[in-house]
Design a protein that fits this description.
Helix Hairpins; SH3 type barrels; five-stranded antiparallel sheet; 19% strand
Length: 271
């Protein structure tokens, strides 16, 4: 056994040296990764309003980068031509990128959403025909709960390629309610009744003040429009309350909604 070891000592020692060096590189990569993650976490905690999803995603990407570089050094240590590997990975990455361009666009959009932060978890948003409350922002998709309670996974590219309405960023929100009025009703009486509706709702904000005006004169009706502001958290409750009070005004006979009529003429063929 000793004779075999002595005969192959010149061959075994370099291998053991490289294995030990590779283990040292992995351990060093582990330490560097830990130090970078701790520094990153401390740095991000000093920045205000950083989204909770940004930190774990950034940590994961940093770990992949550090261990990937360490892996290239280890391969080069054992005589593997890393330049050809890098070239092969580049060509393969290009091919995969072309095949998965839609998926990669979602990743790029996800990173942009995490960095620029047009919304965060808990915000009520609307974009690309989808609206709801943000629950989780991921690299590929953003999960939200619609206002009807349905959970939806939306591709990040849909958000990034459309205008985003964030209702939670502002503390107040305006609503508009259009009320059609027949030409036979008194405009002054109807506007007085609607002004009473606005005055009876204590949750409406005084600044900006509520507005009531004639929106347009259509073929069959005079269209009035009410505009008022409410706190974002109370928006829907106030909106529904105003509509209910308008219906009560109609039931009291203070104003009437024009009914759409369609005339149908039937022509009888002559025998």
């Amino acid at each position: 056994m000793m004779s075999f070891f002595n005969q192959h000592l010149a061959f075994i020692l370099p291998i053991l040296y490289k294995v030990a060096l590779a283990a040292g590189l992995l351990f060093g990569a582990h330490l560097v990764s830990k130090l970078c993650l701790v520094s990153l976490e401390k740095g991000l905690h000093k920045i205000k309003n950083v989204d909770d999803t940004f930190l774990p995603v950034t940590k994961l990407m940093m770990q992949y980068l550090i261990y990937g570089i360490a892996g290239l050094f280890i391969l080069n240590l054992f005589g593997v031509n890393t330049a050809s590997i890098v070239t092969l990975v580049g060509v393969g990455g290009l091919s995969i990128g072309l095949a998965l361009k839609d998926m990669l666009s979602n990743v790029a959009a996800g990173l942009a959403l995490l960095i620029l932060r047009p919304f965060k978890n808990g915000d009520a948003v609307e974009a690309g025909g989808v609206s709801g409350v943000i629950k989780e922002i991921g690299l590929f998709t953003t999960r939200l709960q619609t206002f009807s309670g349905v959970y939806v996974c939306v591709p990040n590219n849909l958000f990034w390629s459309n205008s985003i309405l964030n209702y939670s960023r502002n503390k107040k929100r305006r609503f508009e309610i259009q009320v059609p009025l027949t030409y036979f009703d008194s405009l002054d009486s109807a506007m007085n009744a609607l002004n009473e509706v606005l005055s009876s709702e204590p949750r409406l904000l005084e600044d900006p003040a509520p507005q009531l005006f004639v929106k347009k004169l259509s073929f069959s009706a005079v269209v009035l429009e009410m505009r008022a502001w409410a706190k974002t958290a109370e928006y829907w409750d106030v909106y529904w309350s105003i509509n209910q009070k308008i219906k009560a005004v109609m039931e009291q006979g203070k104003m009437a909604v024009p009914l759409l009529r369609k005339e149908i003429q039937i022509q009888k063929d002559a025998d």
